[in-house]
């Protein structure tokens, strides 16, 4: 018993890591489903709809497929680096997510305060540590391209490292404005700095004074995650599949999971730094807004039940109403348990914002064509970087003026 | 080691130090430039870990972002761009070998002497918060040492301009 209580912190952290891993991998799997569905509907197709009701079991089928595919290694590959690259990509992407705080208040369980999020909430260098991890993330892609000993991957790896060098600068400079306004690198303090005026609601968020910074950050972050329209390292029409051409089976899946995890991390960062993180968009006095999670979950659950009972397969007629009942029951539980409802407000808003950004990612993929290489370089160096520097200078002057003339902060 | 308890920070220190030394040796011994670059990255990260152990969080993060990230990515990029292959090994020249060995012995002696003289402070000493925090560092850079700092940045700017001029093609 003493051993258990002495190592309680350690055990809690390990449990949290396992839990977050499980959640992230599941969310990743369903993110692929979400992406395929949304892009399909944008292109007037149905998307996955064969495996399970509405294609909901497609991610599972994909996972099984990844596991059982043959896993060849190219003849001239540099074995060590070839095996290291996907591991590096996945490990770094997952580590980044560990630094995100998902809620302000701890749950009290067995006499321990358990915070949502793996890193303790007082990490002083939160955002810097995240940048350090994204800075290392490029090696996964670059080394994968190099070690495959093949032309297309090498070109993909080259493009990726050039792209990372160019956009890393703009990415880092664009958040300086936010850091100046918060006066801290700590992600929790950055959110708290946006809650100075609880009555302003969403007008207190950083995105209004830092709209330029947000633009630069989001564009640079999309480029860092190698997503459309910055997916030059894996451009299908030019480089077969770019840096992961020679990867198959689960090593390919690792790159895939890493990319989707980075998407989630970037969405978290956008919400936290510019959109108030877990803050509600409504003024604090609007207490009825606290029933919004239920007001969304219950009708959604009922709609799923309604849709499910008319579904064409028997499996769907069982599963979909079941899911709908679960959603509706969850919504009802939030109404009936006021304590729980108060607690889930913060995570609910953060998750909603993350979902919106993930949708924007997919939306961009369905809308924008890929940049040409010279356009990419010109855009990064000649537009994003100067804009983000201007943002830093303007923000600094405004803060200095506030301090000098109004004595604020 | 008398009176030197094996605490957790000390154990972490030895792991990181060993990692840094192994990385540095591997950097020299590896035959392929990419493997050497990877070893250098390991050294950089181990150093960042040591800074973190000393309580210098900001310096540790910047070490990884600037050296581990930006600069080493540039190295890897150039190696990949030039498609550099395995190094050709020549026999070590005797002219370089003898003075080199002497220098190594001298350096090792110097380091050993320094460590021997300061047995008290060999335990990882945490920097005081004032020195290590972002506020402390910016106070030092922008107040106490603002002129040397600006001079250094000017020097780097000159170097960048020089490189740009050199890299530009002759206009015919």
Structure commentary:
Chain A is mostly helical and 409 residues long. Chain A has one domain (59-285, 337-406). Chain A is 68% helix and 1% strand. Chain A has helices at 2-6, 8-42, 58-68, 79-98, 126-147, 151-174, 176-182, 187-193, 211-224, 236-239, 249-274, 292-309, 314-336, 338-367, 373-406, and strands at 107-109, 112-114. In chain A, helix 2 crosses helix 3 (58-68), helix 3 crosses helix 11 and helix 12 (292-309) packs antiparallel against helix 13. The mean pLDDT of chain A is 84. Chain B has 172 residues and is mainly alpha-helical. Among the domains of chain B are: 7-85, Four Helix Bundle (Hemerythrin (Met), subunit A) (Up-down Bundle); 133-172. Helices cover 76% and strands 0% of the residues of chain B. Chain B contains 7 helices and no strands. The model of chain B has no long low-confidence stretch (mean pLDDT 80).
Number of helices of chain B: 7
Tally of separate domains of chain A:
1
Looking at this structure, what is the CATH superfamily of the domain at 7-85 in chain B? NADH-ubiquinone/plastoquinone oxidoreductase chain 6, subunit NuoJ
Provide mean pLDDT of chain B, rounded: 80
Number of helical runs of chain A? 15
Q: What portion of residues of chain B belong to β-strands?
A: under 5%
CATH topology of the domain at 7-85 in chain B: Four Helix Bundle (Hemerythrin (Met), subunit A)
Shape of chain B: globular
Write the H/E string of chain A, N to C: HHHHEEHHHHHHHHHHH
Give the radius of gyration of chain B: 21 Å
Distance between the termini of chain A: 49 Å
Tell me the number of strands of chain A.
2
Number of strands of chain B: 0
DSSP helix fraction of chain B: over 70%
Question: Which two protein chains have the largest interface (Cβ within 8 Å of the partner's Cβ), and how many residues from each?
Answer: A-B, 27 and 26 residues
